[in-house]
Specification:
- The complex is a heterodimer of chains A (63) and B (385).
- Chain A is α+β, with helices and mostly antiparallel strands and 63 residues long.
- Chain A has helices at 3-15, 41-51; strands at residues 37-38, 55-60.
- The relative contact order of chain A is 0.13.
- In chain B, 66% of the residues lie in helices and 5% in strands.
- In chain B, strands 2-3 form a two-stranded antiparallel sheet.
- The two termini of chain B are 44 Å apart.
- Classes of the chains: A alpha+beta (63), B mainly alpha (385).
- Chains A and B meet through helix 1, strand 1, helix 2 and strand 2 of A and helix 1, strand 1, strand 2, helix 3 and helix 6 of B.
Chain lengths: 63, 385
Amino acid sequence: MPNRVWRRARVSWVIGSLALATSSIAAPRAPAELPFIADDLPRAVAEAREQRQPIFIEAWAPW
Amino acid sequence: MRAFVFTNPALTSQAGRFVWLAINTERAENAPFLKRYPVPALPTFFIVDPSNQAAVLRWVGGATVPQMEKILADGESSVSRGRLAGRTPASRLADHTLARADSLYGAGQDSAAAVAFTEAIRRAPAGWPHYSRAVESLLFALDRTGDGRREAEVARDAFPRVRRTASAANVASSGLEAALGLPDSAGGRAALVTVLERDSRAIVSDRSVSMAADDRSGVYIALLDARKDAHDSTGASRVAAEWASFLEGEAAKAKTPDARMVFDSHRLAAYLELDHAERAIPMLEQSERDAPDDYNPPARLAVAYRALKRWNDALAASDRALARAYGPRKLGMYQVRCDIYLGLRDTTGARKTLESALSEAEALPPGQRSERTIEGLRHRIGTLR
């Protein structure tokens, strides 16, 4: 296993990735959260083709 | 990311520019996705062109809001082929090569991607805006291919240029870890370790640069490994104490239980390094109260109790975790449970636990199934017969 993954695994196995940022940017009005589609690639592809937009995918795990 | 980045107005204001998809990699129904889009670590982000479903960009690991804004802009540009509209011929050439590297990287072709990222960086003019992202991706690709020497050398050479950016932590810590992974006999190893440990130390000493908390936490892990490598137990303890203090400070700033809980795993790891697992217990008990359906707090409690040799408490926590868990993550919980049974001197219970794990590991679909994990379980079961 690669170094970085192996060494981080020592933490992630204990368990979890800490995917967050310490930065904070004040900004005006915007939707409260991004409209993520859950676990449905075909639906995302269909919507993206219809709307002619790229797909942003977050691969995550609940740990 | 949900707690800190994806709720930031700078990103939510871009909601209409993409179709947003979240893939829970633990769910069996997402195994085909994992076969198609390689996910070497979590989180991993992709920008996908819907016309052919090709990943035009991949980013492995957490990101700050500004980093994520760049990822979105680069990915969108790549899908629309807008990169070729660069300002100068040199910039256009570098952008074009970067697009090819991103595409190879997105397809999991790490060796070829490393060559292309290197070429893009070589061709880039001064002030190229994609430099930091290209370097980070190159380092990870080299990591995946096992070329630790090049990874360390690239990190050493890139660090001065990214020193004031959010990429500094990953560049320094990746390089340091890669250098530490070289054989002791490798020429130049000591010099690489020295300079990259110095750079990593500079990152944790300077809080003026905004970066992902897990990246900064990763620097502490690398520094810890460096002190252990130097057989400096006092120095290692000092780093672990700093690491725990940093994480406690970040957790204390959290405005919601979810935001606080994202630090639990790293805090537990730091407490284990300090040999003070008991410091994790109140934190994890609070998390279990705050998120009663989440398997993570009891799974972590089982780890903490195991370290404290409180076997019955560990077993009870393991019961609660396994009752809520699903997917490949359960396999790690079984390994902890096996250790707990061994602590109780119950070899039969330990073996049966691993046999359950093996059965579940073999039943995982392609994309989630890991032959390496299966082989490891078989080997460990063999030692318990």
